[in-house]
User: What shape does this take?
Amino acid sequence: MGLETLNAGLDGMALIRSALEASPGKVALVSSFGAESAVLLDMVASIDRTTPVVFLDTGRHFPETLDYQRELCALLGLRHVQTAQPHARDLGRHDPNGQLHAEDADLCCHVRKTDPLSEALDGFEGWITGRKRFQGGTRTRLMTVEPVPSTGQVKLNPLAHWTTEDIRNYRRLRQLPLHPLVNQGYPSIGCAPCTNPSEGEGSRAGRWSGMDKTECGIHLHVDGSGI
Assistant: This one.
């Protein structure tokens, strides 16, 4: 049974368990170790701590995010965490001064996120994301099982239909630590230069402040559209 045939009516741990059983070792969890990441990481760790976890280290994370990543990995006993990073040659070519985020945010995301993640996920049949419908934008139509024809992989979104209250209740039930920046007013946490907690409202407020941009590109199709 392929991942694309998984029961789209499943979500949360039921969907994760089905996916890991359908393709052992061929499904990875991609995590930003951001504001809401602990919930999904805990679910995966509760089922199989050897599940591959890919952490995308863009080189521009807040120090608090890197500390939180280490804390959660130790707390949950995750045994197969991989770090994907941009290539030095690409940074030297496109962002030698570290200012590409201000000059061309889309290209910056492509160099620091999209390309490294694509390389890290090569060979996997599917990957698990933490996206939810309540995050708005292109995510409002999100399905739990999302085939990606361009790569032949399947994206799994176990929390697609969860609410902010669902996330909060699970975290409290499991006594999972908050990202340290959440209590400082950051509802969503990305790269430090492109995250401003003071602008906007909603779960992804402050991302790419002042720009007509809501996605880094990882979850956009080749034509620029998103699900």
User: Anything to note?
Assistant: Residues 105-120 form the longest helix (16 residues).
